[in-house]
Specification:
It contains 5 helices and 3 strands. By secondary structure, the protein is α+β, with helices and mostly antiparallel strands. It is globular and about 35 Å long. InterPro entries: Dimeric_a/b-barrel (IPR011008), Rham/fucose_mutarotase (IPR008000).
Length: 103
């Protein structure tokens, strides 16, 4: 399945956000893949962040990551950098942006 998400980085933390993503811990990358993700790309336009990820089951992926210490630490770090923190795990696959058009 393919999921698109929209988040916002705090205007005063853009550089920190990008630096953090250049150093995503190997343990977290491995956990995300083990939970079923095959790809995850984030684009930034100003403070708007657009994520597209492909995974077997988004809700299951979030549930598997939810209790992992490496993910908990990462989410705490992101909470400091994101303008509005959304708990995607609570919404599961329903948290994705609706598809408007595809070619």
């Amino acid at each position: 399945m393919r999921i698109a998400l929209h988040t916002k980085v705090r205007a005063d933390r853009v550089e920190e956000y990008e630096a953090a993503h250049r150093e995503v811990p190997a343990e977290l990358r491995q956990a995300i893949r083990a939970a079923g993700a095959t790809s995850w790309t984030i684009w930034r336009s100003g403070t708007d962040l657009f994520h597209v990820l492909e995974c077997e089951d988004y809700g299951r992926m979030l549930a598997e990551l939810d209790k992992l210490p490496v993910n908990i630490a990462w989410q705490a770090r992101m909470a400091e950098l994101l303008d509005v923190v959304h708990d995607y795990s609570a919404d599961g696959a329903g948290a994705g942006l609706p598809v408007v058009w595809e070619l």
